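pinned: reference chain
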Amino acid sequence: MISQAPLYARYVRTATRPWIRGPKARYAKGWIELDPLGIEEYFPITERDLVFDLAAVRTPTDAVEFVRRYGLLRHSEPGGDLREPWADWEQTATHLSATLRLASTLQAAVAGDADALRALRDGFEPAVRPLFAARAANDDELLAQMSILVAWMLSSGLEGCQERVEAEVDWDVGEDGGAGPPARYRLAVEAPDLVGHAYHAAALLVTTRYPLAECEDDGRFFLVSDPRQRFCSPRCASRARRRRWVHARRQTDEVGQA
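pinned: its C-alpha cells
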C-alpha cells in the first residue's frame, strides 16, 4: 500500500494485516513450501482475482503458482515455518470451489435456467439432504434450501474475520496506479489468513449479486460481463473452438471412410 496522506498511513498499516509472497515456492513430499529468499509484503485486499485463483487450485503445481502470487494460506511470518500440507490446500480449494459452484448454479436457476435447476435437484440436493429436516417438496423449497446452504458455506469460511471500511485515498487503486479518489470507500476485512480474504471476496460477490459462471473449458469461475459468455478468457474460447473443429473433422473423415 502507498498512502498519499501520512496522517492516515499509520492507522491503515496498523489496522490492516500485510501478507508475504515470494518467487520461490515448491511442492515436496506432500508439502507446499515458500522459500524465504526474495519474499515481499503486500496487502491481499488489493488482489481481485485471489478468490478465483484459490478456487482453481486442483494440483500441487497450481498451489505452487498460487503461493508465488499470493503466499501460503495461513502463514505470513517470514521467520516462521513456511510450509503447509497439500491435503489442507486440496480441502480448502475444494470447499471454496463447491461454494462458488453452488452459488452460480443457484443464480442461474433463479434466473430461469432449467438445466441449473435440474443440477440443484439431481446433483446438490441429494448430497446435502441430511442437513435439512425434510426434503424439499417443490422447486421453491429447493431454491430456499440451497440459498441457506450458500450462506452457511460462506459463513464457515469467514470465521475469525472482522469487516471494516477503508478509504480508497489510502490505497494505490487509482487509474494511474496512485491513490484512489476521495469520497470512495471499500468494505475491507481483517482476516486471519488468505482463506478469510477469499471468502470475504466471495461473500461480496454473492451479496451484491454479481453474475458468476464456471468456464466450460478449464472450470475456472469468473464474473459474467455478457449473458452469452461461456469462457473465462479468449484463450479458453479458442481452445474450445479448436476441439470442436477437430471433433467435426474426425466425424467427417469417419463418414467418408464408411
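why pinned: The first strand starts at residue 19 and ends at 21. Residues 20 and 41 are 5 Å apart (CA to CA).
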